[in-house]
Amino acid sequence: MKEAIAYIDGNGRVIESSGDSLPVYSITKTFIAAAIMAMNIDLSERISSWFDRLLVPRGDDITVEQLLNHTSGLRDYGNLTTYNNAVSKHQPVWSDDEFADYTLRLPLLFEPGSGWSYSNPGFWLLSQIIQHESGLDFDGVIKRYITEPFGLHKTRVAHGIFSDLLPEYPAEWVWHGLLISSAEDVARFMSSELVQPLTTSLVKVPFDHPLWVSPHYGYGLMVEPDVLFGHAGGGPVYNTACFRFMSDGCTICVLIQSVEDWAAFRHLRSVWEIRRNT
Fold first, then answer.
1. What b/e string do you get for 167-181 counting C-beta neighbours within 10 Å, with b at 16 or more?
2. How many domains does the chain have?
3. Which segments within the chain are labelled E, that is strand?
């Protein structure tokens, strides 16, 4: 079983680092959010500044901030039978138009700012904004604003077939983009000055789970106020989690081969408990 783990203490020292580079799935959202902040994009700007009504009919009513914290009302594709059937049957990756037809062009789930619902398409829009504003492709944005300044040399954007365990699953099925990284790189990123500003505005999340007492979402960031912040992710074959614990400042990243929901997060919590008590 493939596994990568990193543990960075509150003083920034790497205490443990092991494993190969693996896909991080939705942790990619935190990198996108950090790029938005690093580029000083106005969070109050309406997204109609970048997208016409043919793509996002309600773009005049949705802000960059609402994309970042999943309060836009935009739909997701993760639980769509059509999407999951296309992936399982190894059909060609949808075009941007096809993704949009199933999500962005449909009526909103709620009025922007009045609810919360996880939206991968919202982060695709954010990835398009940072590319437009920088004049770079997604690879170039990640390199210029994140990996080069912080020396994250094992972090890159995935393209096409990215894992020998997934010979018929191209990275482009993750519409907003998919990063491949080492656990140490992700932990160093999550404990960096890039991420702290993403916790400044929190939204309560309607999510009932034994691992969370008071789940909130910041800007591309899962947060338990006064406890931890970071992000988890999951997709075919792999499960991921990277969180910083506020009590002692340590950051732990776990990337593992598993399709079980929250498997990496449970492992991460176990690692923290063991180290805290030794």
1. eebbbbbbbbbbbbb
2. 1
3. 3-8, 14-18, 22-23, 156-157, 179-181, 203-204, 216-217, 222-224, 228-234, 238-245, 251-257
pLDDT tens, residue by residue, 95-115: 999 999 999 999 999 999 999
Report which DSSP code applies to 100: H
Task: Count Cβ atoms below 10 Å from residue 85 Cβ, excluding itself.
Answer: 10
The first and second tokens of residue 80, run together, are: 């769509």
pLDDT digits (tens, 9 = 90+) for 147-194: 999 999 999 999 999 999 999 999 999 999 999 999 999 999 999 999
Domain of 128, CATH number, reads 3.40.710.10
pTM higher than 0.90? yes
Q: pLDDT value at position 1?
A: 78
Domain that holds residue 87: 3-276
